[in-house]
UniProtKB/TrEMBL annotation:
Protein name: Peptidase M14 domain-containing protein
Domain Peptidase M14: 120-421
Active site: E385
Keywords from the named record: Carboxypeptidase, Disulfide bond, Hydrolase, Metal-binding, Metalloprotease, Protease, Signal, Zinc
Lineage: Eukaryota, Metazoa, Ecdysozoa, Arthropoda, Hexapoda
Signal peptide coordinates: 1-15
Organism: Euphydryas editha
Amino acid sequence: MRLLALVMLVAAVNAKHEIYKGWKSYIVKPESYEQLEKLGSKLLEFELDFVKNAALDREGIVLVKPEYQAGFLKFLSEENISHTVHVEDLKAQFDLEDQEILKQEQRTRSINGGRMPYDNYQPLNVIYEYIDRIAEQYPETVTLVENLRSFEGRPLKYLKISRDNFQSNKPVIFIDGGMHAREWISPPTVTYAIHKLVENLTEPDLLERYDWILFPVANPDGYSFTHTSTRMWRKTRSTDQHALSRQCPGVDGNRNFDFAWNTVGTSNNPCTDTYAGSRPFSEVEVRAVNAVIEEYLDRMLIYITMHSYGSLILYPWGHDGSLSQNALTLHRVGIAMGEAIDNLSLPSFRRYRVGNSLLTIGYGASGAAEDYAHSRGVPLTYTYELPGTGFGTQGFHLNPRYIHQVCIETWGGVVAGARSAASIYGKK
Ligand SMILES: *[C@@H]1O[C@H](CO)[C@@H](O)[C@H](O)[C@H]1NC(C)=O
Ligand SMILES: *[C@@H]1O[C@H](CO)[C@@H](O)[C@H](O)[C@H]1NC(C)=O
Ligand SMILES: *[C@@H]1O[C@H](CO)[C@@H](O)[C@H](O)[C@H]1NC(C)=O
Ligand SMILES: [Zn+2]
């Protein structure tokens, strides 16, 4: 009986990731701005899926479905864009990475029971249990909010952290994570920020000066789906957007905000990963993020949305590459963040690059959170592309043994950004 159970378990493990048979990923390294833009211009035609964003003289990693591989390679050769195969067999690589998660659990179990949301890639319930526990244990500084439910009915949970329950009109810093479901390194950086503001407050000035809102998993349906079914799922899981939505669920949450909606870097085809939805804010998960922005609009000074990969700090305008009136300050605070991260980083990690979204990665995106929040008047808005795959050619996702490192350095970036902004904007 036990043997049968074991056999079935092994079979189930091996059956995982079947859908990625034949998919490949490539390393591409554009050596001129023209090449970078050319790559960007082929996004929709080849359904290119940049797991790690390319930048000028900086390699990206792009996932390509079997039916587009020949055409894509031909295009790269014609344009002389240097490239190599990154992962030949995605399914095998994902199986390997599942093993790494188990190993990491063994490593951390003796330290903290293996259940901390910032020590490993954890299922949603572990993250939610952490959020609930923090709210329960620290009622004087922490308020749990769960006003809305996801499309599939999961609570959308965020924490408000404040010395005086948001009473004294301090500037607000808002950080969200997990909007893109598969970007598993994102939620740990947000739960780690909670840890550093509540459980291990080594920078008390940050609570003196600011009130905080931390929303670790903005897309819990998608996040759960990446754990139970499809590792590379990016979108929400809504099925009410289009006649095809039952076969092809979901909307790209970071294309669903109401700014220049569905004009660039998006698709009208619900079966693609950048489907913008039937209308702005069609997704309840996106409305939940927007509700926070609207509620604290007059006080919000910094908004950061955590994504991966690339070791990049990106700021508006991402849809057309023009600079905002606040570009100088956006850049200055962004540089403070990037420099602080680099100071805390590992030699094998990429140095951070800071810049306008479109100009840095070579393609534009409309309906993105960073642009939207800025368009509503939030002075400092950033997309972080966290470090990940691509030091060396090994691996697809960041090895879980580096999660803690990424959390520590990313928090260092947030701290430096908050202090830099405080010095520029005064106490308010
Ligand atoms: C690519 O390189 C070849 C050989 O050096 C050259 O003839 C061709 O014009 C180049 N193509 C582009 C688009 O730069
Ligand atoms: C608290 O944080 C500091 C700095 O990040 C670290 O050195 C220290 O070990 C932490 N303490 C605990 C109890 O986690
Ligand atoms: C980073 O390190 C450099 C060199 O040690 C130092 O000059 C700089 O102030 C540091 N920056 C931050 C933001 O910590
Ligand atoms: Zn993302």
